[in-house]
Amino acid sequence: MPAATLVSGPTAREHLRRSVGALVAFLGLLFTVPTLADNAIITIERVKGSVVAVGTFERTRVPAFQFRATGFAIGDGSLIATNAHALPATLDSERRESLVVLIPASEREPQLRDARELAVDPGTDLAVLKINGAPLPALKLAGLESTREGQSVLFTGFPIGGVLGMFAATHRGMIAAITPIAIPPPVAANLETRVVRRLMTGSFPVLQLDATAYPGNSGSPVYDPETGEVLGIINMVFVKGTKESALTQPSGITYAIPAKHLQALVNKAH
Prior knowledge:
The protein is 23% helix and 30% strand. It is an alpha+beta fold.
């Protein structure tokens, strides 16, 4: 009768080592998840102090403040970033209409600050405003090299303007893709004027987000939940009108202009 073949297996010590390792990994995950959530809570609270509503003010109008877009403080705190398309083409000087930013406040009346255009770049639909008064807490701008597909992001703004009151809301999403703002269609006959113009002036990467934004979110900062660094600025008109020009029904995809273009505009203004 042939002798039985002995198959060596894990020793009791190896079993214990693996069990301890699994327990340590589980406990690490258990304590890490709340930490990440806590960091996001702290980051949101800090960022909201930098987010403002951009609009116009006319004392005899009802309502006197007319919301146009979200904005946020950058640089030395006296600069406000927003979308160029949201700025009024003209102001009614006879009625003393003025460009302003509204600083929300949860425990007191919102504060209005006069603003003026400091720099505008139609090519990226970005604008930088200069406000009067004490500086606001400024957000730091990140470079495109620190932006990755699959990265979790937050964005804070006023999704539907002042319909429900001027209270900034924060949404969570992910960078689904970093994609060119304009690409040639398969059939040249389908080229629209704005796409041709964009291709001629130079296409550039934009952030495609796995999140839903609303018209009032234009100008909202897209930022890292951990650091609060701004990765991009929500754009609900300019990018969508170029990138989705071939679609009969625009998608619900949200796009953002990378923050490096905003930094370039600030540098140019100075």
